[in-house]
Amino acid sequence: MWDAAQARRRLINALVSRLALRLTPIVALLACRADPGVVATLDPTITTVIHVTWTTADPTTDQVQFGVDPTYGTVTPLEATPTTTHSATLYGIPPETVCHFAVQSGATTSADQTITTGRLPNGVPSFVTDTPVTDPNVGPFLLTSTVNLPADKSTVVILDLTGAPVWYGQAGAGVTSVRLRSDGGGVYFVTNSIDDRGANAIVSMDFDGTTTSVSVPEAHHDVIEGPDGGWVTFQTVYQVINGVNVAGDDLVEVAADGTTRVVWDAFQNLDVVENAGWNESQIAGAADWTHANGLVYDPSDDSYVISLYFTEQVIKIDRATGAMDWILGGTDSNFTFATGEEFGPQHAPELTPDGIRLFDNRSFTYGSRMTEYALDQTAGTASLTWSWQFPDNAWTPVLGDVHRFPDGSALGAWGLAGRIVALGPDDTIDGELVVGDSLTVGQVSMVPTFYPGG
Question: What's residue 139's pLDDT?
Fold first, then answer.
């Protein structure tokens, strides 16, 4: 007799078996993605950097979520090409800190895992603070250098806003200005060797620690990426004048192979006048006349603006011809100042829509300050439109930096004082980071992410 109920049971069992066969590979793949055999290790050189590897049964494009707690907050870039063997590098975690992370593969995320970053090696300093930086214009990371004086060695360091180093590179020579590369994948700087200035070089350092360098003897202080590729920096040159060996500066463009083009020569364009640099010993056996220390490119008219410390001048130079468009400050200035508004010596020129921003080192008596000037080339006037200094009149005779944002907030560094400060739009202190061990802090800038385009 036909058993309808039994027939229905057989049909259902057959359908369930067939469906199970179809689902098995999907279930297996999801299980692989959810538990991908993740391995995390610390970088052998940079103890705050974490390398993560994992595999999947089928080619996928994955990424890693990570942070200092299970809410993560940061994600690595999605892999560009499907693969079964995966890797990612995690940046931005402070030293000796638990990092939580999980692999994201498609719609599936692995279980939370942890690894603790290592201790900082000797020579990599931490900054201390009673008031961490909170200004949304700043960070989330800050790039700077710390310098032992005399500047025989430096550490290039990226800090979080509490002052903890999250990435570092030890330069083995003096570094006063370090900048984020335009591709976002690393930093660059010029090394200053006290013992052998002929060994100075422009160094590009990837975040994985890989470095490339171009030898530029007598290069010093500042370097920027060239508008047509390569680099732009200063190169010390010498002339004997009235029996004195005088050190001046060339502004040079440096190609990838190290060949240079002189854009501007101080000896050919300025009168050599004895100044405070005659008594300095930063350049052995020579009077330190110009001491170029800051450089910026102006794409609006294809020009460079440079800062000369001992002549107390800021000069705008036509890139193509080397002609001086104007001189601000010092002798032969094309601009006049109201009484008390003069600057000098100075560092860190930064262009503004109507003029220029400078770090004014000034003197021990008056303290150093961040400044902003409006320049009227027709009237030939320079007007001080903003300035700020610490309430305790902190002074630094070396280095110094200033940045200001559209809402009026600012970021600055007081070199020899070892202080980095962020200001709110009302000029009150938003946060301050201080380096210990009697170190000097180099110029400071913002690092928005370790993963550009991610």
Answer: 82
CB 158 within 8 A of CB 209: no
Residue 85, token pair as written in the block = 């063997």
In whole angstroms, give the CA distance from residue 247 to residue 156.
28
Q: And the tokens for 256?
A: 């990838």
Q: Which residues pair with 90 in a beta bridge?
A: 50
Strands (DSSP E) found in 165-243: 165-170, 178-180, 186-190, 201-206, 211-215, 219-225, 231-241
Which candidate, 390, 312, 400, 294, places its Cα nearest to that of 350?
294
Over residues 194-205, the pLDDT tens digits come to 667 777 899 999
Cα torsion angle, 397, 398, 403, 409, sign:
negative
DSSP secondary-structure letter at 197? G
Q: What angle do CA 156, 77, 61 make, to 5 degrees?
A: 145
**Could you tell me where in the chain the CATH 2.120.10.30 domains are found?**
127-447
Render pLDDT for 20-69 as a digit per residue (tens, 0 to 9).
333 323 222 223 333 448 999 999 999 999 999 999 989 999 999 999 99
Please tell us whether the domain made up of 33-116 is placed in CATH 3.40.50.1110.
Answer: no
Residue 403 structure tokens: 């940045």
Domain with CATH 2.60.40.10 in the chain: 33-116
Contact 98, 68 (CB under 8 A): yes
pLDDT confidence of residue 6: 45
The rounded distance, in Å, linking the Cα atoms of 147 and 196 is 17
pTM for the structure as a whole: 0.88
Quick one: which H or E segment has residue 119? none
pLDDT, tens digit (0-9, with 9 covering 90-100), for 168-217: 998 877 888 999 999 999 999 998 876 677 778 999 999 988 999 999 99
Quick one: pLDDT at residue 454? 67
Q: Report which residue type is found at 265.
A: D
What proportion of the chain, given as a percentage, has pLDDT over 90? 76
Q: Is the pLDDT of residue 19 over 80?
A: no
DSSP string, 334-373: SSEE-TT----SEEEEEEETTEEEEEEEEETTTEEEEEEE
Q: Where are any strands of DSSP class E within 271-353? A: 287-288, 292-298, 303-308, 313-318, 324-328, 336-337, 346-352
Question: Which CATH class, in words, describes the domain spanning 127-447?
Answer: mainly beta
- Our CA dihedral for 430, 348, 221, 161, rounded to 10 degrees, sits at 10
Alpha carbons 361 and 342: distance in angstroms, whole number: 11
Q: Which two tokens stand for residue 107?
A: 């719609």
